[in-house]
């Protein structure tokens, strides 16, 4: 039975989720490239019972990028180093299916899973930024739908390669001189449109079977991919109803792919701001919001739309009509920004400031935030949350000291992790090998005959 506990992840993104978090006095200005700082945050989160650390990524920068994106660690390297600096927290990293090779990805995340004792997760993304193509010697960034076709094939190969060896294949029988039992080895022999891999992978399965597969992308194509493959989805819809709808669609998609709705966990990204009163929380929100000028907010907004130049528009006019701009990038996000601007009749200034310092239902007293977290989970809008604090150290301190104790009191949080692997922490079952599953279903059919 699944417990009442609410699993949390924490975004490790340099100084924080806010574009100018680096200016906040509570954080080292060089946080995005300060490994000791990362270790400190990961260990603090681990001690607080946060289930996983989550590292986002991007493959293109320019002068308009978020400042701390200009100088940041590559996720695989960061997570490998954190694997030895931590003991129980899950380690989830973003890696693009559009700009990587499945065999290498299978080895990299498989190795982090082995080194960490089964704590790894891969956030498979299709990459939104057009400029990425130029960094990988390509003429053109693949179009949104094509990116998802490539992703489906890529993930199929990675998961297939992770099952190259049955769990008991490495017998290492010194007397008989057998290192491996080759009857328990599987060649994938995958030939696709975009990628091919023969296999086997030169790495066995892990303590959790396979790394946890995260997916981030909320368009129709993203939901279909998530339903087919994802163990967990990182979502960024802002309101309860929108997340409940997304969660329902993802779970329906999983069921349509022959999976259990309980085996895909939805994690909205949220940025809680805690105050002893609502006014104090609002003051903290304003303090963070004031870190950004309108000009910077326009640049930040532009990033979702492939660095579209919003500074060229009158800032107090209604949000401009953009046609298809942004649809090949962060599609689900840009579609939402356009829809909300239209529905609420917002000006460009309002949209930009809101994007740069988004407001959420999680600004307020500890009790209000705890109530809201529980409402979202019990109301079907979330299975857990990714905590994307605007300024990480201050945000994590407040959440740990004031919100988690309330959740503990109510039986919704425990500081000791469940089990040892990331799948255990998320109450996902051990990932059986596709060959074991196949053998089990063949035996059952034979027994029934
Ligand atoms: C919540 C969320 C987080 C994402 N995180 C990343 C990321 O860290 N790196 C990245 O390259 N793309 C990231 N993406 C972008 C997706 O990879 C994808 O390219 C883009 O959102 C378009 O897909 P969609 O329209 O299905 O959302 C993220 C998307 C969402 C919705």
Automatic annotation (TrEMBL):
UniProt xrefs under Gene3D superfamilies: Luciferase-like domain (3.20.20.30)
MF annotations from Gene Ontology: oxidoreductase activity
Enzyme Commission number(s): 1.-.-.-
Luciferase-like domain segment(s): 27-381
SUPFAM superfamilies: Bacterial luciferase-like
Keywords from the UniProt entry: Flavoprotein, FMN, Monooxygenase, Oxidoreductase
Family label: Belongs to the NtaA/SnaA/DszA monooxygenase family.
Name of this protein: LLM class flavin-dependent oxidoreductase
Native organism: Mesorhizobium shangrilense
